[in-house]
Amino acid sequence: AQKITQTQPGMFVQEKEAVTLDCTYDTSDPSYGLFWYKQPSSGEMIFLIYQGSYDQQNATEGRYSLNFQKARKSANLVISASQLGDSAMYFCAMREDVTQGGSEKLVFGKGMKLTVNP
Amino acid sequence: DAGVIQSPRHEVTEMGQEVTLRCKPISGHDYLFWYRQTMMRGLELLIYFNNNVPIDDSGMPEDRFSAKMPNASFSTLKIQPSEPRDSAVYFCASSLGSGGRNQPQHFGDGTRLSIL
Q1: Could you give the CA distance from residue A25 to residue A30 in angstroms, rounded to a whole number?
Q2: A2, pLDDT greater than 80
Q3: Fewer C-beta neighbours within 10 Å, C or N terminus of chain A?
């Protein structure tokens, strides 16, 4: 069963606008972590933001925030004030809690391509 | 601080040749991961190590692939013999053990492998 689903193959946004990238996940574990990575055209994988399943607040890192809806099993990435340099592939990933029988493995979604237009 | 260092960045070789990819993890990280990325299959975990010991190699495609971690600062992924379908970008990543906390995996820049 697919654990991470990113249904948007691609999105376009105007520079300076906000954009939401969707991610839904599937797990029966009560404790897990969700990650977002960015992969620009140069190819490297860049860690952006983390959300723990028991975190009380939605995670924020600069212009990135995570809209975490646990009951709906969604962890959407919100990028505020888009910049041209935000154009990239974005991957959502999940790690089940090692203390609850999970492992250090990250399971990645298929990614989605964001294009920021000037 | 130095990140994860992979070499070579690009490798082009002929089918049947042995290919060795190298990785130096971030100092102090006790986990090391090898991934393969293709358009068809996305990002797949091949194998990961904890304290130089292989923990899960269920993602290694077949016996032609092998990985070693002789010490905490070096790992290799070897393909012998290589085949055109092995063409992909291979990433190495390292992390601290999470223990349920925020410990992201940090990726190297990848090795783009082309088997002719």
Answers
A1: 13
A2: no
A3: N
For chain B, the average pLDDT equals 93
Q: Give the count of beta carbons closer than 10 Å to the beta carbon of residue B102.
A: 15
Q: Does A50 sit within 8 Å of B45, measured CB to CB? A: no
| DSSP assignment of B77-95 | EEESS--GGG-EEEEEEEE
Q: Say yes or no to pLDDT of B57 above 60.
A: yes
Measure the CA–CA gap between A46 and A66, rounded to whole angstroms.
16
Burial of residue B74, with CB atoms counted within 10 A of its CB: 0-12 exposed, 13-18 middle, 19 or more buried? middle
Q: Is A68 near chain B, with CB under 8 Å?
A: no
Inter-chain CB pairs, A–B, below 8 Å = 61
Sheet holding B74-79, edge to edge: B5-7, B19-24, B74-79, B65-71
